[in-house]
């Protein structure tokens, strides 16, 4: 818990040091959709960025206020938009058809600040699936397409109630300089719209999240402070106090604060390769298992009593429990030889790992525990109970076994 608070404080301090304008830090719920985590962040003054009715429900259950909530999503239904505008939460429209729906709803009046998501089309990062600002990205209004910029400006002039611009152009694998370029492009558009309107129509710029995380060591790098300073240098006008800001960091706030712990059920050898078969695989580390080159995880080895393993490093595989050959948490990793009963830890998994469960093989969602360290004790608190077999059955139509029997 202390680590999460420290990251939240570092984020607040980083932006407070570069602008006097109001800044809402909205945590991207998809990174760690756990109500107690959202509630903890809420006490640190961190709001939420939600992208589905489920995420919005989690945020509300955590007590996050509408003023601290931002709704983004490329596929908002009329019902979602209606709910958002009724609650007064901020909405960023993704495309012209969504904006047309909002036109009809906003006519009745709403407290929601409304913005438009733009794609500055600055290009991809190292991981294609996470690159939101490519020329053909599915997100937002593509700014560099023929005639697009003019039509976006016109869209604002026709709608005096549109007061925000949004971009989310960073992500894992994208260099900071590239992220700053995306923010600079959106700032330039805000200035252009305000000049065309003859008043400050764009009041707030939402710069999204996407600060990359260092999965290679304990070090937190890059830091929020480095990114905020870079923005101050590259886009000073955005931070001179005229614009309110929204940020939407996810991974960089939580990744370092979660660890998957799994027992080695069996230790075996196959083709002279030692293999530790554990309970952590594709269900808790989906990205790593399906794309190990983009998402390698550090693994730490402990004995059955939880003491760090010592001994000669041996090249071995750490396998998960799922029934397909590729279900490996780490392949060919050098670690002290793992034995039956040992414990492996997959580090830096606080965002997008056990919180983005994958239901393969009907493997249960594991329990999540928070911990607080004081003097010489560690206190654990249950954040989420493990999924039971009864729950798995219920979610698989268990109460309608006869549904297909005529
Ligand atoms: C996923 C997402 C974020 C958070 O991205 P991170 O890489 O976890 O910081 C922020 N904004 C939007 C719109 C997103 O889709």
Automatic annotation (TrEMBL):
<feature type="domain" description="Orn/DAP/Arg decarboxylase 2 N-terminal">
    <location>
        <begin position="6"/>
        <end position="254"/>
    </location>
</feature>
<dbReference type="InterPro" id="IPR009006">
    <property type="entry name" value="Ala_racemase/Decarboxylase_C"/>
</dbReference>
<keyword id="KW-0663">Pyridoxal phosphate</keyword>
<dbReference type="Pfam" id="PF02784">
    <property type="entry name" value="Orn_Arg_deC_N"/>
</dbReference>
<feature type="domain" description="Orn/DAP/Arg decarboxylase 2 C-terminal">
    <location>
        <begin position="256"/>
        <end position="350"/>
    </location>
</feature>
<protein>
    <submittedName>
        <fullName>Diaminopimelate decarboxylase</fullName>
    </submittedName>
</protein>
<dbReference type="GO" id="GO:0008836">
    <property type="term" value="F:diaminopimelate decarboxylase activity"/>
</dbReference>
<dbReference type="GO" id="GO:0009089">
    <property type="term" value="P:lysine biosynthetic process via diaminopimelate"/>
</dbReference>
<feature type="active site" description="Proton donor">
    <location>
        <position position="323"/>
    </location>
</feature>
<dbReference type="InterPro" id="IPR029066">
    <property type="entry name" value="PLP-binding_barrel"/>
</dbReference>
<dbReference type="Pfam" id="PF00278">
    <property type="entry name" value="Orn_DAP_Arg_deC"/>
</dbReference>
<dbReference type="InterPro" id="IPR022644">
    <property type="entry name" value="De-COase2_N"/>
</dbReference>
<dbReference type="InterPro" id="IPR022643">
    <property type="entry name" value="De-COase2_C"/>
</dbReference>
<comment type="similarity">
    <text>Belongs to the Orn/Lys/Arg decarboxylase class-II family.</text>
</comment>
<dbReference type="InterPro" id="IPR000183">
    <property type="entry name" value="Orn/DAP/Arg_de-COase"/>
</dbReference>
<feature type="modified residue" description="N6-(pyridoxal phosphate)lysine">
    <location>
        <position position="30"/>
    </location>
</feature>
